[in-house]
Design goal:
This protein is mostly helical. The protein has one domain. The protein has four helices and no strands.
Length: 78
């Protein structure tokens, strides 16, 4: 193989590894303890009761990030 082909193959493998790690990180189960969930819910009370209640649910990091994006872009602080 030439240097260019080797670099391309290594680049593709590197991107594949990064994608696999990202998917694994974003789909891990919620491992917060009940106390941590209650603490997060109490911290979220100023953002609204629905946001606080959502903190008590088991959600993956991807779901939590999606909720934060929705909250930030809905034009309403609550």
């Amino acid at each position: 193989m030439t240097n260019k082909t080797t670099a391309t193959v290594l680049g593709v493998i590197g991107v594949a590894v990064i994608v696999i790690i990202a998917i694994a990180a974003l789909t891990t189960p919620d491992t917060r303890t009940t106390g941590e969930k209650v603490g997060d819910a109490i911290d979220s009370l100023d953002e609204g009761v629905d946001d606080a209640a959502r903190e008590l649910e088991d959600r993956t990091p991807a779901e939590r990030i999606g909720d934060e994006i929705d909250d930030a872009t809905d034009g309403n602080r609550n």
